[in-house]
User: Fold these one by one.
Assistant:
Number 1:
Amino acid sequence: MGVVITVAPTGPIATTAENSTLPTQPLEIAAAVHAAYLEGAAVAHLHFRDENERPTADLGIARDTIAAIEERCPILIQVSTGVGLSVSFEDRERLVELRPRMATLNPCTMSFGSGEFRNPPDGVRRLAARMQELGVKPELEIYDTGHLDACLRMRDEGLLDGPLQFSIVLGVAGGAAATPDNLLTLVRRLPEGAVWQIIAIGKANLELTAIGLALGGNARAGMEDTLYLRKGEMTQGNTPLVARTAQLIRDLDLSVASVDETVSLLGLPV
């Protein structure tokens, strides 16, 4: 079986003022995802923006974006319920009513840069239960060791079905730093049978992606995580980042997972 590549084309923070190739509108995001699919991405991790580029949980914008992607390619849809720090948890959790194949589940409230990323315990459990009802696979985003413990408690409560799917997010101010030691610590503590990927934010992106692949993890690439292809060189869209990741996988004598392989690897509901 191969390595799953997830493309994260937009995110909640970067703007076109920082990199003019960032896709923010539904058709722009759809085009970026399609190009990433052609380079080997099997999963699209989606954030949505309004006409002013602000993060939004608007169901109409989300539907339009997903529909535009589905018209172009069969990539698997993973919706972010993180959305953005300015959007309420109650608005964010409604996105799972669109019934994507996957959606993020962030287990803990935390400092996030200069703001606060609110994930109240009762709300997180309510969202986990609703995702279970709808057959939406949780992508468990953990930014520190205590976040992993919170996920394991939800598993023990019966709110999460296996195999558990983790994204280890390192490099956010307020979470664990993007270092090999922190990655190893979290990987060693993952439960048996879990599938995982590393999400390294900023300048450590390429280094930790390579280490994660060597440790048996999957990979994420895209402008949510870095706006640079290399030091001092802005990326010209998401495609170069995805292509670089696919080449890295092949250079390690691994294969890039197809969409069908990814459904099996991630244990997605039919």
Number 2:
Amino acid sequence: MTGQRLTIIGERINPGFKSTKELFEKDDLSGIQELARRQAAAGADYLNVNIGSRALYDKAFMKEVIQAIQDVVNLPLSFDFPNVDVQAVCLETYDIEKASGRKPIVNSISETRWDMLELLSIRPFKVILMASERLEDGVGRANKFSAEVALVAKRMTEKLISGHGLSADDIFVDVSISALSSDTEGLLHMAIEGIKAISNDPSMRGVHLSGGLSNIVQQLPAKAADGSDLKSQIERAFITLAMPYGFDTVLGTPWKQYEPLAPDSPVLAQFQQIISARGVDAMRLVRKLYRG
């Protein structure tokens, strides 16, 4: 892992963050620009853009946000909306010259959202593929096993490359990082095993493996009993296990420390125990971790 660097898609332009939600509520474009600058200065490679449900009824504001961001940073953008019409507005507004010729990302496409690929008629883009669900008998179903994750990722990737002209480098497979606080089914273990399975498939070589890293610490206390910042170490524990198998991209906060933990880290050892457990045993181990 020495010398490896994660690609960071800056996550902060999102109303899920209270301070950002306030910027949207106040139409504070200068504040959004400052947030874009801060993420770029901290090392973001892309900036994710999500204005929440407002994008469905206020597309003019959506355009203003994109234009304001591109006026102050030259990073490519990732548009985070499950709606084709909203994504169309984003892609039409995007100025590729202001992004130094780099393509935007459409976040995200799944087998149940395949109509998103019609947007390629507007401009070329990269894609984040959701491998956590599949289309079965016309119905979207959640994947529960790593083999399902790997199979769906392979199926979608093959379609994108052979049928839509994308390259492996254009594709980010999101393995869906679950919250540790409620993972009683081993979904985090499934994600890591899915990463391993994808990386072992020669036909998937060159595809990026990604996930929303901040999801893992949702609903967890800010500090452990001894006052230590466990959230950061938990995020880094996942990275430590996933990076050797090709996990190379995070949707995260650029000024956080995204470095692997030392092999003898007690948090790493306890994290491995937690994600290997199921049901109440997993929750008991999480409480034990926080008690120190």
Number 3:
Amino acid sequence: MKQTETALFIEEKIKAFVFTSPRNRIPASDADIIFDEPLVQYADGDDPIFTEYRTIIASTHLTPREALAQAENKSPEGLPDRLSVISWVLPITRKTRESNHPQTETPSRAWSYTRWYGEKFNEALRWHVVELLVEMGCLAVAPMMQPYFKTLTNEKGPYSNWSERDIAYAAGLGTFSLSDGFITERGIAHRCGSVVTDLSLPASPRTAKDHYANCLFYVNNKCRDCIVRCPAGAISESGHDKIRCRDYLQDDIGYLRKEYDVGVAGCGLCQTRVPCESRNPAGKVSR
């Protein structure tokens, strides 16, 4: 198959898994799905931006070549010349998003289920894509599912050595926001995933003017809705305080993990009842 045909084939397989997997269901409600149709795009595995992430994110952030090499117990130089990154965005359904609209201090039960069980589904999707590629005779790895994946903390707060949102940015799926969220054409309420492979796929262009191009605060300095929505006071005009956000999730609403019977409750108030909830609000704004 040609590169474009292969890319379309993989995209269709990802969408089919989202449509048909029983894991993409809210517990005790077979009729309510967790995620809508995904967005799927691709990045060149040796795009210079991945090296830049060592400065932007942390020196420990892996490049796709390093991530695949570690998984295959090879040297980065021993891998094929061309690598690709498959990146996807899983938009949260309207019903779940709207369940969070009246909330002012804590997430709705449906939102917490989406955060916990939705990421379990996302893990299953990562394995599904890896298995598909291996069956095609390719090397493939989902870095977040590897033993080497780590979440660390510095003076700015938690960070990881493989950031799904930054991978999605590299694949041209959207840009960042004042709240540190990732605004796609389907909005900011979603989960991201990715897989690295030696399959040669056409890189999707990054068309955004800059890495904040989809956020109205940076476009016209008029929107501050996520600041108002944050119950932890972790968002200001200076950006997102990751430490205050983490402490609120762990200490102030940590009790929800037991109440909702989930491992992680999430919050998501800054991702709902805001202009970027389900769309790119800057799409028609005059810059």
